[in-house]
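Hi F.,

I've been meaning to write this up properly since the lab meeting, where we talked about keeping a consistent format for the predictions we share between groups. The idea is simple: the sequence comes first, exactly as it goes in, then the structure tokens exactly as they come out, then a line or two of notes. No screenshots and no reformatting. I'm using this chain as the first example so we have something concrete to point to.
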Amino acid sequence: MKKIQLIIISITIATAGLFAGCDFYADRVESAQLSKIETERELGVTRSEIQGEIQKFRIEMADKIKENNRSIAGIKSKINRGDRWSVTEINRKISRGDRSVRVTQEGRILGLQSENREMKRIMDNYSDLSRHNWDSFKKEYTSDMETLGNSLKIFFENSDVAK
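Output, unedited:
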């Protein structure tokens, strides 16, 4: 009889332990689900913030791209009119056999114009919403835009004619 009672008590304790364990795991599952929901919500907020930053940055860069286009148009106009170089200077270069002055300058400006279009395309197509990638992209893109802008500002300083 004691053996039967001992078996029944053992089974009861084991069953109670089993159910208690189920509650423990159920609590852990619920906690994990809540954590997942909270993480997804935070990720959504972060993505919204990044989307806002991207939109603002696109507007700023669109203005810089327009400014670069105006600079390019001004440079083309100067090349076509010969404003930057005196007729004497151009004739001197040509008389020394350097007939490619204008072609060289036009090629340089076409390269800068192409780079400006590529910068616009890159900005228009950016879509990664991770914080790290956005910060890296923004830093690199800003640097590239500054380099392009500086190249346009000093276009005639690096001219073959000025040498």
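Notes:
The chain is about 85% helix and 0% strand.
The mean pLDDT is 79.

If this format works for you, I'll send the rest the same way.

G.
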